[in-house]
Amino acid sequence: MKKFLTILVALLFAAPANEATAQNLLKKIGKAVTNEVINELKNKSNKEQKSTPQSTPATSQPQATPTKAASQSSPQQTTKVSISEVCTNPQIVSQNGRGANVIIDGIEYVIHTDKKEACLMRVSQPMRGKTTNVTVWGGIKYNGVVYPVTTIMAHAFEGESLTAVTLSHNLQEIREEAFCYSKLKRVVVHGATKRIGASAFAGTNLESVVLENGIERIESGAFAGCKMLTSIQIPQSVTHLEQRLFEDCTKLTEVILPRTIERIEPYMFCGCTSLTSYSIPSSVVSIGQNAFERSGLKAVNIPLNVKTIEDGAFIECQQLERITIPSTVESIGFSVFAFCNKINTVYINVKFKNHQDVANIFAGTSIITNNDLDQCPALKWTE
């Protein structure tokens, strides 16, 4: 502004005498004054903005950076474990970058820190042949973290002297031959256990088996050769059954299978000599090879949904007397009722009324007493 006033004074002293020229000069002076004032105000405003602290909007404030301690979280637990089922003081045998080997009550476990789980491996060497009562822990606390015990490994208790076992509620898998040929008498398998492996309890002294709803797979021969077992119920949650499941369970008198199964697997009840009656689920569409071989059945009523009866399904059932085969059956294999010497009544559809077919189905029996099948008293033909 001071500079402008100096220029204005100079112009006034040098003002021309001509009136028109003077007027033009005044216009220029007025325009210059206006521009100078505007510029001065702008400069003042900019200076004030720079000198006044600006408030930062809440949304633009930087987020607090977590400290190193806060950002390091413990491994996530994938399975909830009851506090009462957690072992807090395992004996550590060895450690490495992926976990540790520990012993609890004479049983070896492996902790997998990378998988966030633990597995029961076997009876420790000093305790083999001496363990009679086992508790399978639900979890193991290691370095401040609880690792759930999810699996009993294959052969873990094979041939051991244990008679009782308490399984945890979060155990997910019992692998092949885990308890086979042990002296185990009772077991409760909880619903969290999705798989019971092949021959897991085969050849044991099991008298009582409780399988809770939630189990999904029971594999080949899981209870085969359990000669003290008298009854068992397979929960409705089971969708996968395999062959030889109860083979040679000679005291078995009662079996309840899921209402949704579609197949009696091969050799499932082979050698179950005390199984004198059994109601095949109405959902079944096929009966596998030798499924009831040498069983104690006295009567067989094939459900209407069954389409196929495979070879030897009821071979050598020495107590079998009465058979009903509905017209819905489409295929009957060889020797299905061979050597069932007590058969006295057979209701069978006329579509199988062929001498050779009947001879194959009932080989070794006294069913065929005449070349004319209509003259065989035991055969009752149905449409």
Number of strands: 25
How large is the count of helical segments? 4
Q: What level of helicity do the residues show?
A: 10-25%
Gyration radius from CA atoms, angstroms: 44 Å
Given the helix and strand composition, which structural class is it? Answer: alpha/beta
Instruction: Using the alpha-carbon principal axes, give the shape.
Output: elongated
CATH superfamily annotation of the domain at 260-383: Ribonuclease Inhibitor
**CATH structural fold name of the domain at 260-383:** Leucine-rich repeat, LRR (right-handed beta-alpha superhelix)
Distance between the termini: 124 Å
- Profile the largest sheet: 11 strands, mixed
Report the uncertain regions. 2-17, 47-77
CATH class value of the domain at 260-383:
Alpha Beta
Mean pLDDT: 85
The secondary-structure element order is HHHEEEEEEEEEEEEEEEEEEEEEEEEHE
**In percent terms, what proportion of residues is strand?**
15-25%
Oligomer: single chain
CATH architecture of the domain at 260-383: Alpha-Beta Horseshoe
Explain the overall architecture.
The protein has helices at residues 2-13, 19-51, 68-71, 355-361, and strands at residues 86-87, 91-96, 99-104, 107-112, 117-123, 133-135, 139-142, 145-152, 164-166, 173-174, 186-189, 195-196, 208-211, 217-218, 231-233, 240-241, 254-256, 263-264, 286-287, 299-301, 308-309, 322-324, 331-332, 345-349, 379-382. With 383 residues, the protein is an alpha/beta fold.
